[in-house]
Amino acid sequence: MKHIISPLDLSTEELNDLLELATSISKDPKKYSSVCQGKKLATLFYEPSTRTRLSFEAAMLNLGGSVLGFSDSASSSVSKGESVEDTIRVISCYADICAMRHPKEGAPMVAAQYATIPVINAGDGGHNHPTQTLTDLLTIKELKGTLSGLTLGLCGDLKFGRTVHSLINAMVRYQDNHFILISPIELKIPDYLRQEVLIDNKIPFKEVQKLEPVMPELDLLYMTRVQKERFFNEEDYIRLRDSFILDMEKMTYARHDMLVLHPLPRVNEISLEVDHDPRAVYFKQAQYGVYVRMALIMTLLGLNK
Q: What pLDDT sits at residue 75?
């Protein structure tokens, strides 16, 4: 039995197989409409979510399976003090596979140690968000045709942004990728990522505080919001939230084939006018998220043969 707690839980070979399956699903979804008939997905969301939770549910329903779970810890026995360990033991009796989002880093890993069904980390604190990373990889592969030889700009909240941390960990496994890290000084990537993932592996990168000068260098621009819920001090949030806003004026500096990605939800870091630019692919990205989660569910349940 395999769990997906980090993007690194899949070897590059397993990852490539998963992305190929997701591509196949995207081309003919009806072919897979009864693959999970009789199977149940439990969605345990201790933290608010729209896209991730609904895309998991859509993925399972598209496969012919069913869904149960909760979208708010207050409506579950967690409000009575039930532990993650006990919750997952019980859920293992009801479902065949589980997707868990939790504000505490490491909570899905704890659940995996007690589960008798596969556990998928749907986001844990500021740590990891592996299925968003799989979505990002599929989007890049489909629209750029490769996962290698790219210059990626990561912009906004790089300190608390778990999607950024997961994407860096995933993309360093492919050859000749370069990173440009664009953020306020207060929101730079964590030291362990800089040292252990980038410097120790001799991955080319630079850190800058302005977006416009590096736009012409980018193959991909990955925008993130400044997350209010990750700040202890509201004054810091208010001071930093408008640091980097992508608008059409900034887009004039970009290459004609540069792609703009965003894990969503968007607040104000991408102007609405950018939505009409063909380089803005974040809504396509959301659709790819359903296909990749379909592929992941099938793979973890051993239904991908």
A: 53
Three-state SS string over the chain comes to: CCCECCHHHCCHHHHHHHHHHHHHHHHCHHHHCCCCCCCEEEEEECCCCCHHHHHHHHHHHHCCCEEEEECCHHHCHHHHCCCHHHHHHHHHHHCCEEEEEECCCCHHHHHHHHCCCCEEEEEECCCECHHHHHHHHHHHHHHHCCCCCCEEEEECCCCCCHHHHHHHHHHCCCCCCEEEEECCHHHCCCHHHHHHHHHCCCCCEEEECCCHHHHHHCCEEEECCCCHHHCCCHHHHHHHCCCCCECHHHHCCCCCCCEEECCCCCCCCECHHHHHCCCECHHHHHHHHHHHHHHHHHHHCCCCC
Phi-psi region of 206 (alpha: psi -120 to 50; beta: other; left: phi over 0): beta
pTM reported for the whole predicted model: 0.90
The one-letter amino acid code at 4 reads I
Burial label, 91 (beta-carbon count in 10 A; 0-12, 13-18, 19+): buried
Distance of alpha carbon 141 from alpha carbon 20, whole angstroms: 10
Please list the ranges in the chain whose pLDDT falls under 50: none
Model pLDDT, residue 175: 95
Name the residue among 137, 150, 140 with its Cα closest to residue 295: 137
Q: Are 52 and 286 in contact (CB under 8 A)?
A: no
